[in-house]
Amino acid sequence: MPFAGSGGQRGRRYEPPPPVDPEDRDAAAAMAERLLAVTDRSRVELQRRLERRGYAPETAAEAVGRLQARGWVDDNRLADDLARRRLSHGYGRRRVVADLVSRGVDAETVSRTAAALGEGQADAVRIAADRLRRSHPGPLTDPEMRRLAAALQRRGFDMGYIRSALRQMATESMAMPKDEG
After folding, report:
1. Residue 93: burial class (beta carbons within 10 Å; 0-12, 13-18, 19+)
2. Model-level pTM?
3. CA angle 75, 80, 83 (to 5 degrees)
4. Tens digit of each residue's pLDDT (9 = 90 or more) over 35-59
5. Which of 17, 32, 71, 127 is deepest in the core (most CB within 10 A)?
């Protein structure tokens, strides 16, 4: 079994990256580009990463500013993409907002994104509930409704939408014909 952090190679120990010059603006910009190649990041998130790697706060801010000027760092695009991905994976508005805040996206962008998400929550909660319920066909029991409600809350959906979706599902499950075996 390979050592943890060894990249799958036996016997190789983790070697920390070489020390950086905290004032090297070009190196900071290059590092920021490499970080963005992996995944889209917010301005604040990218600056934090650079500072953790040893760059001075001013150097990190300038490197991020350069990339922002080129259009490589865009918090609005990040917010829209993240919201779309989270919704498609069955997460709700509150989860999206929490993810954006943790990434350091500004309050105005978070508010705009949250407002845009409010429109599709009823459909999204129903889709997520159906996905969670796939393994339990048949009538919707009270314990299962509680389990589904808790799971949907953890996924970031508002309780009003959850109640509405579960009521609709319960009505539909009551109308289902009983299997005659």
Report:
1. buried
2. 0.73
3. 120
4. 999 989 999 999 999 999 999 999 9
5. 32
